[in-house]
Amino acid sequence: MKIGLFIPCYVDVVYPQVGVAAYKILKHLGLDVDYPLNQTCCGQPMANAGFENQATPLAEKFEENFKSFDYVVAPSVSCTAFIKLNYPRLLKGRHQCTTSDKIMDIVEFLHDVVKIDQRLGTFPHKVSLHNSCHGVRELGLSSPSEENVPKFNKIKDLLELVDGIQVFEPERPDECCGFGGMFAIEETAISAQMGRDKVERHIQTGAEYVTGPDCSCLMHMAGVAKKEGLNIEFKHVVEILAAGL
């Protein structure tokens, strides 16, 4: 299978090490992965702000860049969910849409398609697991607490393949951290308080690190922790999976 690696703009600019780790682990597993150099934003920020007319040309460009791949893999649940759920509507009547069926978050791809059963790297630390809202409720990476379904967590399954790690989940494991893209800008006080509450619950697990599948959530909580002088660090899940490989 031929895999196209999509690195969202905020990962590329602010957290490039996450993109490198995603590529590293896919190559380590012997997969045929390519990174199209002319890729750009998926259009989520524009659409979330109400400017879908500006998002649509970016969706068309994304489709052209990635239509030849069997899978499109991204280390970002929010961008993945936006493409999967919104591209068919944005491109309807304008452009054939194939990527909405091919796009997968890297956790989902490694867990459900590759089905990793080998030991990965080493990360001898206590880690608190953050379940981002898009991952829980739009991509099915873990079981939503509001639904009466058997509990599962694909992120935790992958982390347990890493030697030396201890994985914990906070109280209210899938409660929002308060970022929510435009929400953090339009409702600053509420967003900040939700972030403080969430970081405190992660700290109460005794963890040294918080990890999750989306840099935007981690960025929000890291900002709260830095401002409040809280002693906890943040790493994207692929950074931990690739550690020591």
Structural account:
Helix content is 48%, strand content 12%. By secondary structure, the protein is α/β, with parallel strands linked by helices. Helix 11 (188-204) crosses helix 12 (215-228). The longest helix has 17 residues, at 188-204.
Structural topology:
Layout: E1 2-5, H1 9-14, H2 16-28, E2 32-34, H3 44-48, H4 52-66, E3 71-74, H5 77-90, H6 99-102, E4 103-105, H7 106-114, E5 126-129, H8 133-137, H9 154-159, E6 166-168, H10 182-186, H11 188-204, E7 209-212, H12 215-228, E8 233-236, H13 237-241
Parallel strand pairs: 1-2, 1-3, 3-4, 5-6, 5-7, 7-8
Helix pairs in contact: 11-12
Number of domains: 2
Average pLDDT level: 95
> What's the overall geometry?
globular
N- to C-terminal separation?
22 Å
Q: How would you characterize the largest beta sheet? A: 4 strands, parallel
The amount of helix comes to 40-55%
Low-confidence segments = none
- Work out the number of β strands: 8
